[in-house]
Automatic annotation (TrEMBL):
Coiled-coil segments: none
Positions of the CN hydrolase domain: 17-257
Keyword Ligase in record: yes
Protein name: Glutamine-dependent NAD(+) synthetase
Residues annotated to bind L-glutamine: Y131, S187, K193
GO annotation, cellular component aspect: cytoplasm
Listed pathway(s): Cofactor biosynthesis; NAD(+) biosynthesis; NAD(+) from deamido-NAD(+) (L-Gln route): step 1/1
GO BP term, pick one: NAD+ biosynthetic process
SUPFAM superfamilies: Adenine nucleotide alpha hydrolases-like, Carbon-nitrogen hydrolase
Domain of life of the source: Bacteria
Record organism: Marinobacter gudaonensis
EC number(s) reported in the record: 6.3.5.1
Amino acid sequence: MSVSGTKATLSAPAKKLKVVMAQLDFLVGDIPGNTALVIEATRRASTEHQADIVVFPELCLTGYPPEDLLLRPSLDLRVAEAIEQLRAEKLEPAMVIGAPLREGALLYNGAVVIEGGEITGRYFKRFPPNYQVFDEKRYFAEGSETLTMEIRGVPVGITVCEDIWKEGPVEDCAAAGARLILNLNASPYDIDKQARRKALLEAKSRDNRVSIVYVNLVGGQDELVFDGGSMVFDHSGVLMAEAPQFDEGLYPVEFLCEHHCQPVSRPRPEEPSLEANVYRALVTGVRDYVNKNGFKSVVLGLSGGIDSAVTLAVAVDALGKDRVRSVMMPFRYTSGMSLEDAEAEATALGVQYDVFSIEPMYDAFMAALAQPFEGTRPDTTEENLQARLRGVLLMSLSNKFGSLVLTTGNKSEMAVGYSTLYGDMAGGFDVLKDVPKTLVFRLAKYRNSLSQVIPERVITRPPSAELAPDQKDEDSLPGYDVLDQILNLYVERDFSADAIVAEGFDRTDVERVIRLVDINEYKRRQAPIGVRITERGFGKDRRYPITNGWKSGK
C-alpha cells in the first residue's frame, strides 16, 4: 500500500526568553556596595532562575535620587570603575542597569546593557522629569535617540522611567521592531501610584502591540519611599506578572517570543487595602532611614494619644521591640487615662517604657521667668514650655544613647502649625508627617486588626494635646473630617479659597485654615523630614516662600 500527499512543514518553536526583574533596595552614594549588589543579584538570577536578562532599577549604581552627589568631580570615575567591574565579571545573563552616563560635556540619566563582559548598548533617558519631587533637569541633559537592540536574538527596546509616561520613546521602539520593552524605574510611592502605573502600562502595551517589563526600585531614601510593584504587561495590555510592593526580590518571567513576546502568566499578590499599603510604606521608610543612617535605636514620647500610639507600632514593626524606647512625660494636665493607655501600648509591643515627670523642670523654669512674666496672664507660652521640656528630655536621651528621636506630628497638625517649634517638633524623623489625621485613625484600626496593640479608647476619645485643662484639638481647629478635606484641596490640589468654598465648605473655616497653613511655613521648614505617602507632601513637593505678600481668595 502506498501513501501519497503533501509533505508537512514544521514551524520553528517559539524562542524562550527568561527575564528577571531585580526589585532591590540600593543605598544612595554607595557605588561599590550597589555594584556588589548588582553582581550578587545577577549570579543568583543565573543559578536560581536561569536568567537570560536581568533588569535593574533606574540609577541603581548611584541609588536614587543622588541629588548633588551628581555634581561631585569624582562621579564619572567612580561610575566608570563600577561599570568596568561589572564587565570584568563576565556574567552569563545580560544585565540592564541604570547609571549616570557622560557623553562629552553632558551628563545623562542612562541605561547600560552588558553581555558577556561587553557593553552592547547605551541609552540616555529622553524625558528627565522636573515636577513634584523630581528635579532631574538640574543634573541631566535630555537624550534624543531610541535604543532597540537584539538580546538573545530578541529585538528589545530600552527606556527609563519617565520615558514611558510620555509620547515617543515606546512608540519609537515599537516602530523600530522591538517586541519587548524594558523600562527601568525609580518611581516613588504615593497612595494611588500603582493604579496609575497599571492604567498607563495597559494602554502603552496595547496601543503599541508590545510587551513591557516595568522594573521599580524598592526601599526608603530620606522622605521618599519606593514601593517596587514591578510588572509585566503583554502586547494586548493584559497584566501577566506583578511583584509584591515593598518586598525586595528577584522575580522571573518567561517569555515565548515568536510574532510577539508573550509572557507566561504568574500568580500575582493579593491587592492590599489602602491602610495596609500606607502602613507598609511607613514601616519601609522608618526601617531604611534608621538603618541606612546607622542609628542603633529610636526613642519617642508616648503620650497616650493616637499619633504616638501609631508611631510606636510602626517603629516596632520596622525595627523590632529591642530597638525602640518609649518615654511618658506627664504633667499636671496629663489624665490618668493617658498614663494607663501609654503603659498599655508599651506593654503590648514589649518596648522599654520610662516615666519622667516634667513638673519639677516646669516649676524651675517658671521660677526663673517669674520676674519678666510678672503681671502677664498664662497663654500658649506656658503650654509650649511643656512641649519644649519634653523635647529637651528626648534629645538628651538621643545624645546619650545614640537613638534617633521619632516625632509624632501628623500632616493635619503640621499644615496648620498645631505643634511646638523646638518642642514636639524636636527630633530627627516624623513618621506621620504626610499622614492626615483621619487616616491616622484608620491606620490604628488596621494595625489592631493584625494584633491588638492600641487601646480602643485611644481611637475613640477626642484628641487632645493635654497642655491645658480639658483641652481638645477641636477647640482651636475645625473637626478633622472637615479640616482634612480643606487641606487636601488647598495643599495637595492648589485650590483657591473661593474654589474651596464653592465645594461647599464654610468660608470662615476655609479662610482660617488657609491663613494657618500660610503663616506656619516657617515652622515646617524647621521640621524633621518624614515619609511621603501623598502626591504632595511638605518637603520636596511643596516649596512656598516664607516671606511673601500673597493674599488668599481667587
